[in-house]
Structure formats: C-alpha cells, structure tokens
Amino acid sequence: MNDNKHNEEPRIVVYFVPEIILSEDVNSESIIEDFAPDLWQELQGSSLNCSATCVFEASDIETLDQLTRKAVDIDPSYQPPDFRAFYYLDASPDELFGLLVRLKGSGQVRTAYIDQAGPDPTVNCPKNPRSKWQGYLNSAPAGVGAKYACNLPGGDGEGQGFIDFEQGWILDHEDLCVDQQSPLHGKNSNDSRSHGASVLGVVCAVDNCLGCIGIAPNIKPAKVVSYFCSTRPRALVSALANLEYGEVLLLEAQVQLRLNDQIILGPMEAYDCEYELILLATTLGFTVVEVGGNGTYNEYPPLNMDCYKTLDGRRVLKRNYRDSGAIMVTAASSKHPHVRLDYAPFGTRIDCYAWGENIATLGSNLDSSVDSYKNTFSATSGASAIIAGVALSVQGRAEKVLKRRYDAKTLRTILSDPCTGTMPSNLEPTRHIGVMPDLRKIFDLVIK
Prior knowledge:
- There is one protein chain.
- This protein is of the alpha/beta class.
- It folds into two domains: 4-115, ACT domain (Alpha-Beta Plaits, 2-Layer Sandwich), CATH 3.30.70.260; 131-445, CATH 3.40.50.200.
- 26% of the residues lie in helices and 17% in strands.
- The chain contains eleven helices and 16 strands.
- The chain has helices at 30-35, 37-45, 58-74, 96-104, 146-149, 193-204, 232-241, 272-283, 379-401, 408-415, 439-445, and strands at residues 11-16, 51-54, 86-90, 109-115, 162-166, 223-226, 248-251, 254-259, 262-267, 287-291, 327-332, 352-355, 359-362, 373-377, 421-422, 436-437.
- The strands form five sheets. A six-stranded parallel β-sheet has the order 6-5-7-10-11-12, sandwiched between helices. Strands 2-3-1-4 form a four-stranded antiparallel β-sheet, covered by helices on one side. It has a two-stranded antiparallel ribbon with strand order 8-9.
- Strand 5 (162-166), helix 6 and strand 6 form a beta-alpha-beta unit.
- The longest helix has 23 residues, at 379-401.
C-alpha cells in the first residue's frame, strides 16, 4: 500500500498572474499561448517539451465561484484567489526542474512548484468486543475521553456530517455505516481499501456489538471522496460542495516536499492550490483536520514545519506566514507521557497530537474482507482520525447544549487549548506538537 509505484507522476503546478486568464475556455493551453506569448514561445522553443492543462474543469470553476461568493458573504476580509489561474504543466521527469526555473523567472507567474503525492500516511497496514483494545477511547491522560463523551447527549457525534478524503475504503464493512457504496468523486483504489477502513473505524465505527466502536459512532452516514483516478484539487472541490456549516472534512493525504536535498512527506497545504481550497473550506465554516505527514517515509528525520522553505524561499508551513485554518495533526506514542514519534512532524503550525501507534480499528486482508480488524494502525493517519472523531463529538455536544456548531477556527482553538488537553512529554520542549484534546474537560469547562 505504501509502494511508490502507485503514486501519481510528478508535475508542475503554476499559478499565473490574474491578467493571464481572460477566456471562458478553462481547458485550453491556448490561454497561455494567447495571453503569455513570450513565456509560451520560450517554453515551446526550448529543448523542453511540455503541455498545459487547467487544474480545474469548467464544472469545478462554477462550483468554486458559488463557494467563494458565499465565503465573502461570511467573511468580507476573505480574498479569494482566481482558481482559473492554476495550471498543470506536464513534462518528462528529468525536465521538470529546468522548467520550474524558467517559470520562476517569468513576471507572468505568481508561484510554481512540483506536485507529487506521497503514499497513504500510515506505517502499518464497551459492549463492542474489541473496544477493550481501543485505549485511545479512555480518559485522559491516556486517551481522549471518548467513553465519557458518548454517555452525554450529542457526545457520540449525533447528527454530525463527515467526509473522509483519501483513495480507498471497504465501504461494506460490517462495522460501518456509509452514505453510499462508491465515492462521491474519484475511484476506490484496491491498494488503499484497508487504510480507509481503518480511518473510518477510528472515527465512526458503529455501536452494533461487533468489533470496534468509533469515537463518534452516531454521526450521519459517512461520506467519502477519492482523488484516485482524479486529482487532489478536483476531489477537494467535490468535498466542499457536499459539506454544510460545522461539518468535518478529514484530509488523509500527504505530498512530497523537497527539503535540503531530501524528499520528505508533508501536509497537502504546502502546495498553494490545495492551501487556497482548504482556506476556502474553513472560511465557509467547515472543520478541516489535516494529516501533518510522515517525514522521510516513516523514518528520521521528521519535517520541521518552521524551517521548511519552498524553492522560492517562502516558509509556507510556519503559522505566522500563512494559516489555512485547518487543524494540523502529528503523531505521538500511545503510552503516557506521550512522546512525539521519531518521524512525526513538529512546529508552530501543529495544533494537536494523538496516538500514532497501537491503534485498534477496522482492517482488511488481501480479499478486502468485511469483517477484519487490526491493532496496529498507526502514524499521522491514525492520529488525524482520532482528532477528527473528537471534532465530531464536540460539534455534536455543542449542537445539543448550545444549539449551534462551532466555526472552524473556534473549534480549532478549543481542541488545541492546553487548559483542556493533555500536554506531551517535555523531552522536546522546542519541538511544538500541540495538545491531545480531552473531551471530559472540554464538555465540563467549555460546553456548559
């Protein structure tokens, strides 16, 4: 499942200056040829052989126009990008860096970067009989207090909406309740079915006296969006079109970044196009939980988000540079005091941590069986699923007690508050990893 051969080929994303996009035809590279002729002639006249396509199709642009208008109504300070100005440039892999250098020297380009997906962000592939192994459900400081939360009205996530964004699932697993038996967008990847099943099990495995129980087992039937056989940006547009205010979107995807001549796995929002879409989501009031990434393919050294720079020198993962509003998650040990796992990212952009090992949840075998389970789910995948479940529990309780859901940034503030969460071990005081939220404290001190 983590084999690199299943990843999409690297390509360049270029974000042009607004003057370039003057045509209704969003699918033609002739836009670049017509309105950036000097750049296009240089590229075509060089030894580089590249082609251009819009990141978004016409239907995506129509959806994005509607969503950005709504976002501006909610927050007049929000400044939407022109999503028409994002293009893919495809060339042979050994030509990409040379093409990137040419683009960065052009006054007709705002930003450009190499886009390449990483593998699925995991290391290993009460009356519910396997809940005794789900230690992350226990009270703090060991877990997040989900067993306590489920005994309070709304604390089981009652009526909350949830979308899982990745590549594959076992949607007919005996311990799940999903909206439909195919993704809202994209295809179901066989290589990722076990991963998606494990994620959904942590978040929302149902209370049916079988197997496990999710942190938020009483949410509305879960929805899934896949970027397999599509692209992450187009899949994100579909997710945004299917969310309502206060609902939760879990981003179970990581991307490849280049840091000091190393390939390192980091969060989607390191790429400008995905960042703009996530910012749009949180401006609309959707809660976004985002995988921080598994570093150098689950090995040391990890990603230091404060030190990461793009090729043009921007510190896009440092909180005081830019902030998408998503809840960024890293992974720690299952045993208290919780210690950041060696490969797990750190930095001021991290909001929360959770268990990144020994996670009992749904699983699968090679036949994608519908009744398999595992005790070894792990990494930032598992940690982010735990935080997504907590977010759904808090929204459910808030709707019962306060008669409303929290907006994205308020909920993030609650989940990352040291006063209502478990602090990590102080072995690495300079490596910020946020807190693990404690549902008991949140319900007793905040939602009352």
